[in-house]
Write a structure and sequence with these properties.
By secondary structure, the chain is α/β, with parallel strands linked by helices. The protein is built from 32 helices and 24 strands. The chain folds into five domains: 41 residues, no CATH class; 106 residues, TPP helical domain (Helix Hairpins), CATH 1.10.287; 327 residues, Thiamin diphosphate (ThDP)-binding fold, Pyr/PP domains (Rossmann fold, 3-Layer(aba) Sandwich), CATH 3.40.50.970; 245 residues, Rossmann fold (3-Layer(aba) Sandwich); 131 residues, Rossmann fold, CATH 3.40.50. The chain starts with a helix and ends with a helix.
């Protein structure tokens, strides 16, 4: 008996009091997952289970503890729960927590994703992706939960399986940011796409081989250029080679959607690679540029700013690709691209953006830092500027020149955060995972065509060399470049993966590289889908506008009867249309002007010019802040019914088959809007495209567009542009920010007949000038210093006959009928100062002073000016008079042109100056001082 007792104690010693905590913990694990403990312990605990006929099963002690803790918080009259109810209640509670965990992965999984190929990106712990945050633990791993809203293959799965799937989808090589989107349909669409197939995109073997081929081309070109032209600047793509498969897939997939044109904008990084490997530029031509063998017809630009166009064959047909020219000023090409796309869509009547696709390649530092990015996004859903969604590709090499610290480069977590302002989905992807890159590219394009919205691909990569090939990056990023030095290229890594999957052999990999090198060596096109004989339907015909020299004279007359008929149509209103009081007065006066009862004022003359242009089938597009009414209430191109709010645009109701007339009040932006209109104008030759500044003073907010595109684009890139700028200009005592359009800057930028700078001073002049801009087969930017108080000045009005006859006059001679023999002094001026001089001259009854108006300052009308001046044989004094300060306005840019005539015909006369003294500010802010200055220099001009 003693032996039997001892044997029993020995067999049950493991459950003695000293081991109670350990045994209890094992039992908890047994209840949660029997397979998680040893077989010996499992058999022991099974022997303790209740008989099968019992209606209950044992419950975890921790659950019971929680239950009793809960009981202490409820009324003593509450019903006591059964064991089964306790378990069910606890499971339901955990099910809720699991659903919250799923939601957190969708919202914040991107913060845990493995995005950086170098594994250097700092990632904070995401606490709400931890089990403990939801009162869950590894003990719950085997518990089966409903998968709820997850679009995966299983409706129920263990917690561990659910977490594994969520980690695979949201925390691998792709980081999805889309839960900021308000539109439920868009979110659900994205969720279904990324969670289907348990987050495992499946690509066929031929797709994977094509991916490798594209990577081989991207790497192959960079290596070839590096060996052939060592040290030459090319802003290579090494480290970001996955950019090439992205753009390639965008073009090919867009073709399947029926796209006819893809317009691409990008900065210098990787541009040469895109030119050769996407657009099919002949490598031999690129090599000639490196070797300085290119033909120089104009000033030109560096090779990594050059644009290009070609036609690419896709599964959906031929696609025309255009890579826009651009300067080094980062991101400014983005709104230019949008304008070009909108023009192409308008030409194709593609209102939904199905046929023309904008694609913009950004750098990470510029995307986060340049304000024009925000402006361009803000335009994306507006009536005037929407293009149906843009594909944004950020080549995120995690360094901007020498700046890589995030707390120096930006204040946001990602460089892409600005895109959230328009609720664009953002797909971050590790560039070393080409299949993930391909998946998000397809996802992005499909989203764009499903919802007509912008979408962002953040391609997280690195820059193997410095900012350019002459730069040494380890001076400022030593650790990063140590990691890069150890890191194999994307192509090498992916080739190894495909070899391991037996999709390709190492020999085939080597042969693929060798074929590409051979094509480069022989100067052959390396894009096999390049169309050798492209369809002319995909091009814009600019030939009628080529080879024309500027001429000061162009006949813009028209039959008076036709003009009167158009004038009458412009004052017609829909039946029952209720005009606002002042607008009604404008239309009443215009009806009198149409009948010849009143002279035509500036606003109606401008409107009539548009009517004559669209009546001949040409287009007119006007944008800018408040252009519908006009800043100074002179235009009224759009009027509103005071009872219904309905808009009426008379210029759209002229004739059945007229050219289009569109006018939009722009968002409060100058830079992006002007860049957009430049892009539009360079794509639409047969149109009058106008951007109007609210005040000319604000145009310098878009100075980069003026400097880098408008005034120099033709000579750098041979891009014709007929864009017209309306810049209200004039000194009227309104202060330094409401007086000057900085005329001097435009004149300083004028050379080689690049632009036209005009200051028309009458209604007839603006009528003929605008007609000339469209009817003359010459496409040059036109900068017009438009007036403010002249808009209603009686002296600037004109008769219908003056509008019907004649043309724009670059120079207007004396108009008060003085005989040339009695003139001893000539005042030369431009703009509204003429009316101030004339008024004072009449008050003082001065009859020996003639006033010559230069209506065009550039190109300078040498012959017309000379003809006007030489008729005054008895002149003794010649002066230039302007209302701007001496260091501003036209004085310094125009005096040498005037002196050229004086030296030839009046060698004894020295050109004088009368106007405001030099000033740091554009104008005084004090009305009294303004009036005194004006009175003083006008008196001096007439008294000399």
């Amino acid at each position: 008996m003693q032996d039997g007792l001892m044997e029993l104690m020995r067999k049950s010693g493991h459950i003695s009091g000293s081991n109670a905590a350990y045994v209890e913990e094992l039992y908890e694990e047994f209840l949660t997952d029997p397979l998680s403990i040893s077989e010996q312990w499992r058999d022991f605990f099974k022997s303790l289970s209740a008989p099968e006929e019992e209606a209950y099963s044992d419950v975890s002690h921790s659950e019971i503890k929680k239950h009793f803790e809960a009981l202490g918080k409820v009324s003593r009259h509450a019903r006591v729960l059964s064991n089964e109810e306790i378990v069910n209640s606890e499971h339901e509670s955990k099910q809720v927590e699991v659903l919250l965990l799923i939601s957190s992965y969708r919202v914040r999984g991107h913060q845990k994703a493995k995005l950086d190929p170098l594994a250097l990106m700092y990632r904070e712990r995401v606490r709400d992706l931890d089990l403990e945050f939801y009162n869950l633990s590894p003990i719950d791993h085997s518990t089966i939960f409903q998968t709820g809203p997850l679009f995966i293959s299983r409706r129920k799965a263990s917690l561990k399986a659910i977490i594994d799937i969520l980690e695979k989808i949201y925390c691998s090589s792709i980081g999805y940011e889309f839960m900021h989107i308000v539109n439920l349909e868009e979110k659900q669409w994205i969720l279904e796409r990324i969670e289907s197939n348990d987050g495992q995109p499946a690509f066929k073997k031929d797709v994977k081989r094509h991916l490798l081929e594209r990577l081989s081309a991207a790497e192959g070109l960079e290596k070839h250029l590096d060996s052939k032209y060592p040290g030459a600047k090319r802003f290579g793509l090494e480290g970001g080679e996955s950019t090439i498969p992205v753009i390639d897939e965008v073009v090919q997939r867009a073709g399947k959607y029926g796209v006819k044109e893809v317009v691409l904008g990008m900065a210098h990084r990787g541009r040469l690679n895109v030119l050769v490997n996407i657009l099919g530029k002949n490598p031999a031509d690129l090599f000639d540029e490196f070797e300085g063998k290119a033909v120089y017809e104009t000033s030109g630009d560096v090779k990594y700013h050059q644009g290009f166009s070609s036609n690419i064959m896709t599964a959906g047909g031929e696609v025309h690709m255009a890579l826009a020219f651009n300067p080094s000023h980062l991101e400014i090409v983005a709104p230019v691209i949008e304008g070009s796309v909108r023009a192409r869509q308008s030409r194709r009547k593609d209102k939904d953006g199905k046929l023309v696709l904008p694609v913009i390649v950004h750098g990470d530092a510029a995307f986060a830092g340049q304000g024009v990015v925000m402006e361009t996004f803000q335009m994306s859903k507006t009536r005037a500027y929407s293009t149906g969604g843009t594909i944004h590709i950020i080549v995120n090499n995690q360094v901007g020149f020498t700046t890589s610290r995030q707390d120096d480069a930006r204040s946001t977590e990602y460089c892409s955060d600005i895109a959230k302002m328009v609720q664009a989905p953002i797909f971050h992807v590790n560039a070393d995972d080409p299949e993930a890159v391909l998946f998000v590219t397809q996802l992005a394009l499909d989203f764009r065509y499903q919802f007509r919205k912008d979408v962002v691909i953040d391609l997280v990569c690195y820059r193997r060399s410095g900012h350019n090939e002459t730069d040494e990056p380890s001076m400022t990023q030593p650790l990063m470049y140590q990691a890069i030095g150890r890191h194999e290229s994307t192509r090498v890594l992916y080739a190894r993966k495909l070899v391991s999957e037996k999709i390709i052999t190492e020999k085939e990999v080597d042969e693929m590289n060798a074929r590409y090198r051979a094509d480069l060596d022989t100067g052959q096109h390396v894009v096999k889908s390049l169309v050798k004989e492209p369809s002319v339907e995909l091009f814009v015909d600019w030939s009628p506008y080529l080879g024309h020299d500027w001429s000061p004279h162009f006949n813009t007359s028209m039959p008076l009867t036709d003009l009167k008929a158009l004038a009458s149509k412009l004052v017609e209103l829909p039946r029952g249309f209720s005009l606002q009081r002042q607008a009604k007065k404008v239309f009443t006066d215009r009806a009198s002007m149409a009948n010849g009862e009143l002279p035509v004022d500036w606003g109606f003359a401008e409107t009539l010019s548009y009517a004559t242009i669209v009546s001949t089938g040409n287009k007119v597009r006007i944008t800018g802040q408040d252009v519908g009414r006009g800043t100074f209430s002179h235009r009224h191109a759009i009027v509103y019914d005071q009872n219904t709010g309905e808009a009426h645009i008379p210029l759209q109701k002229i004739e059945k088959d007229q050219g289009s007339f569109t006018i939009y009040d722009s968002l409060l932006s100058e830079e992006a809007v002007l860049a957009f209109e430049y892009g539009y104008a360079t794509t639409t030759p047969n149109a009058l495209i106008i951007w109007e500044a609210q005040f000319g003073d604000f145009a310098n907010s878009a100075q980069v567009v003026i400097d880098q595109f408008i005034t120099s684009g033709e000579h750098k890139w041979q891009r014709l542009c007929g864009l017209t700028l309306f810049l209200p200009h004039g000194y009227e005592g309104q202060g330094p920010e409401h007086s000057s359009a900085r005329l001097e800057r435009f004149l300083q930028l004028s050379a080689e007949h690049n632009i036209q700078v005009c200051l028309p001073t009458s209604a007839a002049q603006i009528f003929h000038l605008l007609r000339k801009q469209v009817l003359c087969p010459l496409r040059k930017p036109l900068v017009i210093m438009t007036p403010k108080n002249l808009l209603r000045h009686k002296g600037s009005a004109a008769s219908l006959t003056e509008l019907a006859n004649g043309s724009f006059r670059t120079v207007i001679n004396e108009t008060d009928g003085f005989g040339s023999a009695e003139i001893t002094k000539v005042i030369i001026c431009s703009g509204k100062i003429y009316y101030d001089l004339r008024a004072e001259r009449r008050v003082r009854d001065i009859r020996d002073t003639a006033i010559i108006r230069l209506e065009q300052l550039y190109p300078f009308p040498q012959d017309d000016f000379q003809k006007s001046l030489v008729q005054y044989k008895n002149v003794k004094k010649i002066i230039w008079c302007q209302e701007e300060p001496k260091n501003q306005g036209a004085w310094y840019s125009t005096q040498h042109r005037i002196r050229r005539v004086l030296n030839e015909h009046f060698p004894d006369i020295t050109l004088g100056y009368k106007g405001r003294e030099a000033s740091a500010a554009a104008a005084t802010g004090y009305v009294g001082l303004h009036d005194n200055q004006q009175k003083h220099f006008i008196e001096e001009a007439l008294s000399m």
